[in-house]
Amino acid sequence: MTHRIGLVQMNSVEDFDTNLAFARKMIQQASEEKLSLVAFPEMFLYVGENQEEKNRIAQCLETFTLPLFQEEASRHHISILMGSVNEPSPDDATARSYNSSFLIDATGNVKAVYRKIHLCDIDSPNLKNIESRNIKPGCQAVVVPHEIGNIGLAICYDLRFPGLFQHLRLQGADIIFLPSAFFLQTGKDHWFPLLRARAIENQVYIAAPAQWGHHYGNRVSYGNTVLIDPWGTVLACAPEYPCLIDGAIDLEYLRRIRQNMPVLEHLRYECYGMSGNSHPAPSSS
Question: I want to staple 97 with a disulfide (CB 3.0 to 4.6 A). Which of 86, 105, 178, 275 is the partner?
């Protein structure tokens, strides 16, 4: 069974309405191309320095933004991955929000919410980003059944933690989405090697919709929105501008890859300090 999905590359700015208009245009295009799902990058509705504006947008999530995307999904009959948005966390004493992905199915129902687990705290001479100042980390990995296959969710900096990706595969993931806003400084050296490694070692599709280009000040995103198959082959990669790319998820091909090289069956947890009580969950492939 094959399904075509769309990945949106954006150059999100400090204006919510501008970003929203582009996102809705991409949903319309994906629908016209009869794609099963369209996925957006990390923080696709606002990239900027104004924390008050981020908080204002977060407070509108439940009353305006999420219902709007649910309506878009239902109207166009397409699943939507809201790559990530700020989600209020009312129980956080410092008023931090979550960095959250929302997966909406083609009927408009929210199928899953993933809150970014690993926060990007870097303080070096060439790059400074302390995400934990304003973001609260999540604590729950997410895999959810979907018509295109079992979907695992991760966000940007999660890419550097292979244990999360192996856990998602053990829970049955066939395709892992990684909406991102990877820095240009790190992306040019690490983006493709890490993405291909996660795809190959876990025998999953990796779908990574990304931010691209200059946003504000010194903030530049690497782009290169990409779909990678479980053999590590790049199926589609975005050019150097905002756009929609698409590619096919082939569950029969995925099944053959895993059958011909059953790496999960060869895991020997007892030899490297793991508990040994984790086993692959049933997969749609």
Answer: 86
